[in-house]
Amino acid sequence: MSSLTKYEDEQVRKIREWKGKEPSVVSKKFGKVVTPVNWLVQKVIPPAAIRGAIDAANSTGKWLSDTGDIKRNGKISEIRELRDKDLELSDKLTDSVHNWAIGMATVEGAATGFGGILLIAVDIPAIVTLAMRTIHKIGLCYGYESLDENDNQFILGILAASGANSVAEKVAALTTLRSIEVTIAKQTWKAMAEKAAEQQISKEGAIIAIKNLAKQIGINITKRKALQAIPIIGALVGGFVNGWYIKDIGWAAHRAFQERWLIDNQKILEI
Q1: What are the pLDDT tens digits along the chain (271 aa)?
Q2: Alpha-carbon distance values, 12 to 33, 203, 262 (Å)
Q3: In Å, how far from its chain's centre is CA 221?
């Protein structure tokens, strides 16, 4: 194992703190405020709509994650170089991506929030797509491109961790992320070629996983979006709600990819 720098040691502490932090939507006071309009939002945002948004957003988010600015700002020719370059550099690149995404989410949320309940159905696909784009783009900052099914599952695992509605859901998501990290670390190109069929997630299993994730994300977004359903108030809080959601998404991606980078560079075993 390589020794940690002072900066890396500080990030390990922050990753540990993030893992132990209770999901922000768990707040009992927040739950009491939004309960009266939760049922209305659930009518407008059925689970099937969330599943569709996730399916479409993952590929769209990846497609929208251009690499030009990261290569330019990181002074690299290939994204892969960031995997073992410098954690502090990757964090700085991530801050830029994260702040941009929060800004975009705030503008989009304010625009759709003006329409209250009527535009929530339009807002959901947009914010989920931005969430997936943010995760993919932050991954690029650490040198990770989504190239296969395991990478895809890691992305969805981050979405699950950031959209947890309870400590138990967050722990389950983090456990899944660690399992995927181990799987990826053990893979070789030869093993991937020989065991592709064995390692590939079945279509049935993938459908079940997406359904469960969609249900979890649906509950999480409903809690956040409830106040946006109220006319006038929706226009005021729409931007805040979307910015808050993308902020949570960004920090989840930030910490997950930091840990993956530290493990891959043999700085730590796990946190």
Answers
A1: 778 999 999 999 999 999 998 887 644 444 554 554 455 455 556 666 666 667 777 777 777 788 999 999 999 999 999 999 999 999 999 999 999 999 999 888 777 766 555 666 667 788 888 999 999 999 999 999 988 878 888 888 898 888 887 888 888 888 878 887 777 766 544 454 454 444 444 444 444 455 667 677 767 776 666 666 565 666 667 777 888 889 999 999 999 999 999 999 999 988 8
A2: 35, 36, 9
A3: 13
- DSSP code per residue over 228-240: GGSTTHHHHHHHH
Reported pTM:
0.79
**Burial classification of residue 38, based on how many CB atoms lie within 10 Å of its CB (0-12 exposed, 13-18 middle, 19 or more buried):** middle
- CB neighbour class for 26 (10 Å; exposed up to 12, middle 13-18, buried from 19): middle
Contact between 93 and 253 under an 8 Å Cβ cutoff? The reply is no
Q: Cα–Cα distance between 126 and 245 in angstroms, integer? A: 12
Quote the radius of gyration of the chain (alpha carbons, Å): 19
What distance in Å separates the CA atoms of residue 270 and residue 181, rounded to the nearest whole number? 10
* Domain boundaries along the sequence of the chain: 38-264
Cα 106 from Cα 120, distance rounded (Å) = 14
Question: In whole angstroms, what is the distance from residue 248 CA to residue 24 CA?
Answer: 9
State whether residue 146 is helix, strand or coil. coil
Report whether 143 contacts 82 (CB < 8 A).
Answer: yes
Return the number of other C-beta atoms located less than 10 Å from residue 64's C-beta: 15
The encoded tokens of residue 20 equal 């132990």
